[in-house]
Write a structure and sequence with these properties.
With about 450 residues, the chain is an alpha/beta fold. It is about 60% helix and about 5% strand.
């Protein structure tokens, strides 16, 4: 039976590998992600960014102005949800060092050139659970995780059936004690399952990421060695949790699944494992966060390599100390059949033209590619050279009736945040579309 299951798993894994090879470099299939799913994906960034300085972040106004949610979806070729979450975070952090970008570029290039490497990484990433709203992010980053009360009770109730079985071989009457124990443990099992459902879902997702990490560290290649060494170092600190994660997340098909479910109930395997896992995660919170990020980053880089295979008109940027942006054959990533443009921005620029001539699209194309250059080291152009700096915009400003904020006030606030960023030092690229459009012409020109 076990050999048949192993053979079936091998055949299924081979089928999924063939399917992954066929999808490589193809446009991701599926519907646009709805707002709830995007909000869930963004949760990792919200938690991760709490300790980052503001000048590293692409703020919410700029993100909305440039329609970066749709850009993210077009770039998202990740195999796992963890990869999608980390890719989203990568796109919102323009402050990573040139060394970090070089590591990402090395991984992307490796996955582009080495089919065996990407096949092995894809196989490992498929171990990660695929459900959205898993709740693992809050669980990883929250310092005060929910801990089951009276853990000793679960340990005792889980241990008593073992004692009854062992003593039953010496005195048969002890086997009778299994009946009341089974009844008690059934009640405890189902009550605790309902109470700790969210935590169980989160821990199962974390367990799947750890299983993936264990599989990723086996084949080591020079292009991914830095990530592999970091993952391996973190895993050594979580050595004790691997057994409990495997026990907690174990699912078998058919009759074996039914049998294991009875064993879970009798020995309270789920709650005992959950208590052990939570304790281990609390002691090694930083290691879990780092593994989650590293695994997700490998998945994101794999997806970017697939995107480069899909779209041939992509290039790697060159960073310079000159306060400028030079681009050749620049296009907007969301425009089908785009017309490429060159640009040389070396000082303040005013873009004019007739209505519907593509001014806003051109400005957004520059801003988006400046973000992509500093996050995933990829640009939609044949050449792209820029100075490292923060990207900020004021384009799609809206009034806020609930806060009593008029369109004029909202636009002034949007512009003020840019001036504050410029005043704090550092390079800032500002992109403003139709400044003070809601104001009369005389005052609008004067204010501009």
């Amino acid at each position: 039976m076990l050999k048949w299951l192993q053979r079936s798993d091998c055949m299924f894994e081979r089928f999924r590998s063939i399917k992954a090879m066929a999808r490589w470099g193809a446009k991701p299939a599926g519907r646009q992600l709805d707002e709830d799913i995007l909000t869930d994906i963004a949760r990792y960034w919200r938690k991760y960014s709490e300790t980052l300085p503001e000048d590293r972040k692409v703020d919410d106004i700029t993100w909305t102005d440039l329609d970066m949610d749709r850009v993210f979806q077009s770039m998202n070729h990740a195999v796992s949800i963890t990869g999608s979450e980390v890719l989203y975070a990568m796109l919102r952090d323009t402050g990573c060092s040139n060394d970090e970008l070089a590591v990402r570029e090395a991984m992307i290039t490796c996955f582009q050139a080495d089919e065996a490497a990407r096949s092995q990484v894809q196989s490992a990433l498929r171990l990660i659970r695929s459900a959205h709203f898993h709740g693992a992010v809050e669980y990883i980053f929250s310092p005060e995780k929910r801990i089951p009360a009276h853990q000793w009770l679960y340990y005792i109730l889980g241990l008593l059936p073992f004692l009854c079985i062992m003593l039953g071989f010496f005195n048969v009457t002890f086997f009778a004690g299994l009946i009341p124990l089974m009844i008690v443990n059934i009640v405890v099992y189902y009550c605790s399952t309902l109470t700790w459902r969210a935590e169980s879902c989160a821990v199962k997702h974390i367990a799947s990421v750890l299983n993936c990490a264990h599989k990723l560290v086996k084949p080591e290649r020079s292009a991914t060695s830095a990530h592999i060494q970091s993952i391996r170092s973190c895993l050594t600190r979580l050595h004790g949790v691997r057994f409990w994660c495997a026990l907690f997340a174990m699912e078998l098909p058919g009759e074996l699944g039914i049998l294991t479910e009875y064993l879970r109930i009798l020995f309270l395997v789920n709650m005992v494992s959950l208590c052990r896992i939570i304790g281990n995660l609390r002691r090694n919170e930083q290691a879990v966060q780092e593994i989650y990020r590293l695994v997700g980053e490998m998945d994101a880089c794999l997806g970017i390599a697939s995107k480069r295979a899909e779209c041939k008109a992509l290039t790697s940027p060159v960073f310079t100390e000159d306060r400028s942006i030079h681009a050749k054959d620049l296009v907007h990533p969301l425009v089908s059949n785009p017309v490429a443009n060159d640009c040389r921005l070396e000082r303040n620029v005013l873009v004019t033209g007739s209505n519907a001539s593509g001014k806003s699209t051109f400005i957004k194309a520059i801003a988006i590619n400046a973000i992509l250059a500093q996050t995933i080291h990829t640009c939609f152009s044949s050449e792209f050279t820029m100075c490292r700096g923060r990207i900020m915009s004021s384009m799609a400003v809206r009034d806020d009736i609930c806060r009593g904020e008029s369109y004029f006030v909202a636009e002034i606030r949007s512009l003020k945040r840019i001036l504050d960023a410029v005043g704090s030092g550092g390079m800032v690229f500002c992109f403003i579309d139709e400044i003070l459009r809601g104001t009369n012409t005389v005052e609008r020109i004067a204010a501009s």
